[in-house]
Amino acid sequence: MSTIIPLPVLITVSLVGGGIIAWVRSRRDSGWAEVVPAPPGSVLVLDEPEEDIGPLREFAERAQADPVLRQAWVDEAVALLRGHWYAAGLWRLLASHLRPGSPGFWPGMDLRAESQDLVDADLRGCEVRDAVFRGTRFLGSTRFDDVAFTGSVTFERSRFEYHAFFRGTRFRTGADFAGATFAGNTSFAGVTAGGVTGFDGARFSARTDFTGAEFAADVSFLGAGFAGPTTFRDARFAAGARFPDARFGSHVGFAGARRGSSGSPGRGPARTSGSSATGPKGWTWRSRGRRSYGPRCARARTGRSRAGRPTRSRRPRSGSSPPASPPLPCRRPGPRTPRPPGPRPVPAGRSAAGGAG
User: Fold this and answer.
1) Residue 352 pLDDT more than 60?
2) Nearest CA to 120 among 79, 162, 157?
3) Rounded CA separation 41/183 (Å)
């Protein structure tokens, strides 16, 4: 026995289905693109219509003819990068005017992107004069490979939420990375710095690579933290290399690193917490507040300094056990007095055989 569907129901279903099909076709024809998987540290975004950067292209043509407008164009392009979750087209357009050798290269341009959110920043092979990225948050992968910074550069308190690459980057007057945070793998391999460079208080959460880095002036890692494996292999420190209170949570290697024009090794000290360290002879290390480059002597536990002045004594922790072995003596080694020939004197009350008298 067949079921007869009423005519009003069939009409309603047809109208609803036709409306859905018409809506899907209108969305497809309006220029929308599919949502694609984004890398960690980025977001899911929609494709950017070409007409959004059309006015910027027209502005670039006028700036190409009038050099006075070029810095204003760069500032406008950087401002448009704020809030654009898919800005690959903008980065390509900006890089075309900052990359030496390209037909539209504009030398002497400055980048000012303070306290902005930049997604998938890509300036590989570009040349920039002054750059200000203070407090900037970099989402997605950041690529500054082979960039030549000819002026002052600051990444102070910036945050790199994913991988950051500065391979072969040239900082002519140095750079400031104080307080910067690197959440992903970070590479400064082959970087060169001609001025003072600072990573004071910086945090590196994953693998960090300074292989072959060359610092012509002082470089400081005061209080920096390295959570993942870190290498300074074959790095060159022409002036001072300072690592006071730097902490390494994993293996750190300084094989082949040299300091000064004479090739002498650099100096620390640094702290290693549950990690291992390999470096050139002359570096000093501390592990959990204890110096590991020499034995601890009795003077360090008797409350007297080397100059004989009293020092502050530390109270033992509750439940702590005494040291397994006594401290080492601190007396200076000297010539031993030879024992006179003959039998040793026997203490009073004991016989020569060792028994009681």
Assistant:
1) no
2) 162
3) 9
| pLDDT above 90 (res 176) | yes
Ramachandran area for residue 162 (φ above 0: left; ψ -120 to 50: alpha; else beta): beta
Q: What is the dihedral of CA 313, 317, 319, 325, to 10 degrees?
A: -50
CA distances to 61, 107, 109, 187, 219 from 127, rounded to whole Å, are: 20, 7, 8, 19, 23
Distances 17 to 14, 28, 67, 254 between C-alpha atoms, Å: 5, 17, 57, 68
Which of 201, 216, 279 is closest to 247 using CA atoms? 201
> Cα 110 to chain center, whole Å?
23
Amino acid making up residue 206: A
Q: What residue has token string 């710095």?
A: 193
* Cis peptide, bond prior to residue 67, ω within 30 of zero: no
pLDDT, position 6: 72
Q: Give Cα separations from 93 to 41, 43, 80, 326 (angstroms).
A: 24, 22, 12, 70
DSSP lists the bridge partners of residue 197 as 175, 219
Contacts 24+ apart (CB under 8 A), 131-137: 133/158, 134/158, 137/161
Q: Residue 50, class by beta-carbon neighbours within 10 Å (0-12 exposed, 13-18 middle, 19+ buried)?
A: exposed
Check if the beta carbon of residue 224 is closer than 8 Å to that of residue 204: yes
Which of the pair, 177 or 268, is modelled with greater confidence?
A: 177
Average pLDDT in the 265-270 region?
48
Spatial distance between the Cα atoms of 163 and 142, rounded to a whole number of angstroms: 6
Least confident of 76-85, 153-162, 273-282: 273-282
Could you give the CA distance from residue 18 to residue 97 in angstroms, rounded to a whole number? 49
Cβ neighbours for 244, distance < 8 A, ≥ 6 positions apart: 222, 223, 268, 269, 270
Tally Cβ neighbours within 10 Å of residue 237: 23
What pLDDT score does 84 carry?
Answer: 74
Collapse the DSSP code of 356 into the 3-class scheme (helix H, G, I; strand E, B; otherwise coil) and give the result: strand
pLDDT-based confidence at 292, cuts 50/70/90?
A: very low
Half-sphere exposure of residue 289: CA atoms within 13 angstroms, side-chain side: 0
For 116, the token pair is 């902005």
User: What pLDDT was estimated at residue 264?
Assistant: 44
